[in-house]
Amino acid sequence: MQDCSTVLRLGIPKGSLQDACLKVFQQAGWRITIDTRSYKPYIDDDEIELRILRAQEISRYVEQGFLDAGITGRDWIAENRSDVHVVQDLHFSKVTTAPARWVLAVPKNSPIQKISDLEGKRIATEAVNLTKQYLSSHKVNAQVEFSWGATEVKVPELVDAIVDITETGSSLRAHNLRILDVVMESYPQLIANKTAWQHQSKKTKLENLALLLQAALNARDRVGLKLNCPRNQLRSLLEKLPALRKPTVSDLSDPDWVAVETVAEEHLVRELIPSLKKLGAEGIIEYPLNKLVF
Fold first, then answer.
1. pTM value?
2. Most CB atoms closer than 10 Å: which of 23, 165, 175, 186?
3. Per-residue pLDDT tens for 213-235?
């Protein structure tokens, strides 16, 4: 039976980041099952005990020691001013691969054109501390109030501007808002309680977890390519092939042919394969990657 003192209590985000987070874990090699009636998901690893919580809360629970570690946005760590150890940046988002952005937005027809125009105005946001810090850095005094949600609908009747989170900006455009500035860009981070980070077995588990999660993210949107190439066309073929370092070239039993293997961005392969075929390549195989360790 696993010693409870060595089990890593890990928080993962509920809500918009949940599905993306679970997908990364699956690709990294873990299977997680979530019961909608419980905040304790099942994971097929006796050394990890999961909790599913709002991303906004995770860094506080990690700092306070109720969790050993967690995955949450850089934005919420800053908003909570949490004193935690950042183990790894994890570049994934709920919809795209771009970072989430906290943006300052105003109605399209608003007279507010620059940050200084916010002097004395009212701003609604869920990220009150981030917004106050941003305004302070620009030496602007404005009233910042907490928004419980649906922040976009509060301008211009209730407030003059909002600071809201977006990936694509589509919701802001739908509400006839324009972005005045970016307050912060944020990706998820794997964080640890500072005491837990000093615990050798938990630190090792977190380092291994970070390695495999990052390997899964490295493999995202990349595929492996294998092919056989006439030796006399090898130089021309290598000039077309992308590679993390250099493609692997191996001799075949036929001295006039070689085997070539590489990793490429998936979106490039549709252009690449016809070019390789024209150079005489045969037996071209494209295969998916689960993990890629640099």
1. 0.89
2. 186
3. 999 999 999 999 999 999 999 99
